[in-house]
Amino acid sequence: MIDTYLLEQLCAVLDCGTLSAASEKLHLTQPSLTRSMQKLEDLLGVELFDRAKNRVHLNENGRLAAECAKHILMEEQDMISRVRALDRSSRTLAVGMISPGPMMELSPLLSSLYPDRTIATELRTEEELVQGLRQGMYQMILLNHRLEDEAFACHSCGTEQLYFVVPHDHRLADQAQCTFSDMNGESLLMADQVGYWDRIVREAMPQSHFLLQNGIGALAEIIRASSLPYFATDLTIRLHGRNPERAYVAISDDAATEHFYCFCKREDEKKYLAWFQALERRF
Amino acid sequence: MIDTYLLEQLCAVLDCGTLSAASEKLHLTQPSLTRSMQKLEDLLGVELFDRAKNRVHLNENGRLAAECAKHILMEEQDMISRVRALDRSSRTLAVGMISPGPMMELSPLLSSLYPDRTIATELRTEEELVQGLRQGMYQMILLNHRLEDEAFACHSCGTEQLYFVVPHDHRLADQAQCTFSDMNGESLLMADQVGYWDRIVREAMPQSHFLLQNGIGALAEIIRASSLPYFATDLTIRLHGRNPERAYVAISDDAATEHFYCFCKREDEKKYLAWFQALERRF
DNA sequence: ATCACTTACGGGTGACGTAAAAATC
DNA sequence: GATTTTTACGTCACCCGTAAGTGAT
Predict the structure, then answer these.
(1) Residue B154 clears pLDDT 90, i.e. is over it
(2) Strand bridging mode B246-251 / A177-178
(3) Protein CA B33 to sugar C1' C17 (Å)
(4) What is the secondary structure of B225-254 as a DSSP string?
(5) Spatial distance between the Cα atoms of A142 and A158, rounded to a whole number of angstroms
(6) Of A127, A168, B99, B166, which cross-links B229 as Cys (Cβ 3.0–4.6 Å)?
């Protein structure tokens, strides 16, 4: 069998053209490379070089061998990557989602079910999520509708209802509910990490300006300092409570209520059985 | 980079199930294997085994790694085979043909043009030859008609005219030529290595029996010992001369004259330029 | 003289074997 | 007891570097 170092050295010779250049690239001395190439020729039982007195060139055999070697080394790198990725994926639970809402509640549940795995969450577009799930980048993804795809298992994981949060002296403050169009044109504060909601509200309220805040902290600060309306959902209300200085007005449009669904590869469904059973009990 | 011996050992462990069994298969001691697998885990930065006190099992990482390793080792074997095959093909000139006639004259020419290559000839059917040329099994093939295939370069390499050879007291002995049907029904001696001619004469003379002889030597012997008619061609006549005890009657049917064509891969055409130029001068 | 390669010789890493211990059956 | 894995230690192979030599530019 051919040792890996011989393949690497052969590739370097192909890339560099001469033994001395290759030896430099490899941080080796020329004599060492010479011996390696001779050994390789011995092992293969084939001449790999056209030898002049002080010049060697890869011949046809040598070029083929070097191409093969390059391919093998790539495969070896690929093996390392794949094994490491598999190991990582067994230690972490990567969940991709289009909207952060449902994970606020579900994340602690996931942690308690899989205490020895670290939960990693990412906010992405649906296309990225589906591709990522297929490629093993995520173990699960959360979307706001079902998929036809046979490759994925799908379980419902709750809904999220959007609210306007307005000062008590706002014209809508007394109403229990309203529509997007009722507020269309008014400026609203909004966090930047809201995933899918961003698109929903921009489409439903094309006349409004949305003052994006970097992170929840900045948003909370400007909420205290201003009287601008902003958004909440039933999930954020359950998690953080209501702001007593504001009124909460539910948005009655269909688009203001998202249904969420959790997907994994169908072959992984049994791995996460406990999780999906917990979802079933809950929703 | 991962040394090849580690991949081999990992594969053996996958195949054998236990370290001790694998060590036996590899003609190694168990401690050595243990260290190798530990080193491999180190290199990958990943655990490959579920370890009990006196038992190890490949885990999911290990199984994936072993599968990859097996694949890489296969590729390495493949590399060795391919390089050796290329080397062989550069030292030999394999010519496949449907009929041995033209090579009787052309083989010495080929040898003199390529003195450092050994000329290997094979008799096969057209389908085998075309496939073999495509796969690199032959550098050239000789067929009895042109091909449409764009992948091949084609050069004419002469004709071969078939004769009946009959005793002087045969009813056709005085004629300069005759047809297949004139002899249809008579038994004839025939060598078994005549390639395409075999089919030609059987189709043209369905009533005749052909007494196949294994090799030219056996045929020559039985020719001397019997008065049965047999076949010759202009090429065999030029090569071996005429048998003075027999009369030679040319066969006038179109099928009794073959036109031969020499093919190589179009990309190899320049390699064999000298050869094709010699053919052009000759025919 | 410089460059490119080869041959010859010595050194150090590391892969292997032997020996022994620990743990399970 | 036998079997399997692991640890400890010594040995030898072999891969590399240094030095020297050859031939070409």
Answers:
(1) yes
(2) unpaired
(3) 12
(4) H----EEEEHHHHHHH---TTEEEEEE-SG
(5) 11
(6) B166
Tokens of A20: 């001395």
pLDDT surpassing 90 at residue B216:
no
Query: Cβ of A72 under 8 Å from any chain B Cβ?
Result: yes
The answer to whether residues B271 and B141 touch, using CB atoms and an 8 Å cutoff, is no
A136 and A177 part of one domain: no
A163 strand C contact, CB < 7 Å: no
- Of B85, B111, B126, the residue at which a domain comes to its end is B85
CATH of the domain at B179: 3.40.190.10
B68-90 burial code (b ≥16 CB/10 A, e <16): bbbbbbebbeebbeebeebbebb
Of B36, B63, B85, at which residue does a domain stop?
A: B85
The closest alpha carbon to B243, from B224, B226, B256, belongs to B224
Note whether A51 and A179 are same-domain residues: no
Q: Quick check: B68 and A83 CB within 8 A? A: yes
State the pLDDT at residue A264: 96
CATH code of the domain covering residue B10: 1.10.10.10
- Looking at residue A211, its pLDDT comes to 92
First CA to last CA distance, chain B: 59
Residue B218 C-beta-side C-alpha neighbours within 13 Å? 10
State whether B5 and A8 contact (CB < 8 Å).
no
For residue A28, what are the domain limits?
4-85
How much is the pLDDT for A53? Answer: 80
Confidence of residue B195 (pLDDT cuts 50, 70, 90): confident
Does residue A148 share a domain with residue A270? yes
Q: Which residue is nearest to the C1' sugar atom of D25, using CA?
A: A54
Q: For the domain that residue B103 is a member of, what is the CATH number?
A: 3.40.190
A53 touches strand D (CB under 7 A): yes
Q: Which helix (H) or strand (E) holds B16?
A: helix B4-16
Q: Mark the ranges of chain A whose per-residue pLDDT is less than 70.
A: none
B228 and B200 co-located in one domain: yes
Query: Concatenated DSSP letters for B132-186?
Result: HHHHTS-SEEEESS----TTEEEEEEEEEEEEEEEETTSTTTT-SEE-HHHHTTS
Same domain, B62 and B200: no
pLDDT of res. A247 = 94
Answer whether B76 sits within 8 Å of A47, measured CB to CB. no
Indicate if CB(A78) is under 7 A from strand D: no
Is the same domain home to B271 and B243?
Answer: no
Mean pLDDT of B77-83: 95
Q: Are residues B139 and B277 in the same domain?
A: yes
Residue B2: the pLDDT is 93
Indicate if A75 and A31 belong to the same structural domain. yes
Predicted confidence band of residue B153 (pLDDT cuts 50, 70, 90): very high
The Cα B12–Cα B66 span in angstroms is 9
pLDDT more than 90, % of chain B? 80
Q: Is the pLDDT of residue B182 over 90?
A: yes
Enter the pTM of the model: 0.72
